[in-house]
């Protein structure tokens, strides 16, 4: 299984936003609502991570509801990837 | 094929011995309680017999039979039905209530979890229904079946794709079974809206608040509001058959 760094996941998150004409801020504390990163964008990012690692990531919705910032997204996926 | 037309004059009598799957908590427990209070005999199983269900059984030992059974374990459900009939008499009512929920977007739901949801919520109740109907038919009995489905069977909600598919499947099975049984049994579904308690974790507070705002009655459905409908379908003389009755305060209308 390929290990993905937090920085690489951040790159992928940037790609998801870039495809929609938006920009990922450098600040991990940036609010996802202001960035315009929605739940389906999160799904797309998770699937991109899966593609790179070859590992399927399954998770329930309640965990997602606690995600509010860019850093939360990265933390969630790093932790999920680690499990 | 032989004629499948109904025999007109014979009505389906009220159920007197009712099997309730998933009777240990929530709506299932409320149904068991209500039927016992109404003087019926009730056989109820669940994966775990909660203290609440055990207490109900203790209060009415002659009119109840409860045990710990996983609805997906066909042999165990068969044994339960035989034991329940040995204790209470022939079953003439079935409430398919046992189900597992879901709280995950479809693309992030493990394939094993999808299979488990379908097995528990669709395959198992179909098997249990088959088992009970076979016994009723073999003994020339008439009876009633109530499938507890969900508003998810008719309206879309995120995070509930597999769950909705199973509930829609049970709504569809309800209609076909009512046809197939030619009036010897009444087969209906009750489709509650979201409960304030159990389902709140599924949708999140924001979505629940939105549903409440859109509900003319101004509140989410409570189990106590569904129970009388189940009782009516099991007990009252109506010509309701093959229907899915929505109990959601018109949230979905």
Automatic annotation (TrEMBL), chain A:
Carrier domain span: 3-81
A Pfam family: PP-binding
Gene3D superfamilies: ACP-like
PROSITE patterns documented for this protein: CARRIER (PS50075)
Database matches in InterPro entries: ACP-like_sf (IPR036736), PP-bd_ACP (IPR009081)
The protein, known as: Carrier domain-containing protein
Organism: Micromonospora qiuiae
Biological classification of the source: Bacteria, Bacillati, Actinomycetota, Actinomycetes, Micromonosporales
């Amino acid at each position: 299984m390929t290990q993905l760094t937090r920085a690489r996941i951040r790159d992928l998150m940037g790609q998801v936003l870039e495809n929609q004409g938006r920009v990922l801020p450098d600040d991990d504390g940036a609010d996802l609502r202001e960035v315009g990163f929605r739940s389906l964008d999160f799904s797309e990012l998770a699937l991109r991570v899966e593609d790179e690692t070859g590992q399927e990531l399954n998770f329930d919705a309640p965990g997602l509801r606690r995600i509010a910032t860019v850093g939360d997204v990265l933390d969630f996926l790093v932790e999920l990837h680690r499990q | 094929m032989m004629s499948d037309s109904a025999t007109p004059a014979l009505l389906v009598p009220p159920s007197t011995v009712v099997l309730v799957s998933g009777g240990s908590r929530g709506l299932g427990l409320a149904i068991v309680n209500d039927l016992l209070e109404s003087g019926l005999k009730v056989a109820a199983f669940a994966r775990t017999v909660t203290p609440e269900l055990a207490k109900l059984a203790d209060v009415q030992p002659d009119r109840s039979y409860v045990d710990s059974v996983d609805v997906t374990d066909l042999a165990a459900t068969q044994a339960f039905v035989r034991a329940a009939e040995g204790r209470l008499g022939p079953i003439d009512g079935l409430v398919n209530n046992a189900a597992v929920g879901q709280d995950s977007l479809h693309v992030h739901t493990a394939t094993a979890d999808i299979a488990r949801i379908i097995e528990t919520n669709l395959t198992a109740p179909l098997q249990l229904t088959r088992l009970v109907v076979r016994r009723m038919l073999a003994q020339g009995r008439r009876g009633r079946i109530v499938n507890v489905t969900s508003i998810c069977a008719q309206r879309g909600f995120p995070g509930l794709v597999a769950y909705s598919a199973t509930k829609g499947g049970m709504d569809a099975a309800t209609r076909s079974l009512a046809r197939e049984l030619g009036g010897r049994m009444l087969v209906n579904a009750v489709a509650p809206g979201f409960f304030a308690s159990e389902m709140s974790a599924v949708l999140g507070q924001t979505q629940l608040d939105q549903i409440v705002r859109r509900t003319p009655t101004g509140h989410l459905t409570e189990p106590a509001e569904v129970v009388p409908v189940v009782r009516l379908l099991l007990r009252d003389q109506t010509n309701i058959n093959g229907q899915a009755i929505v109990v959601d305060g018109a949230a979905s209308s």
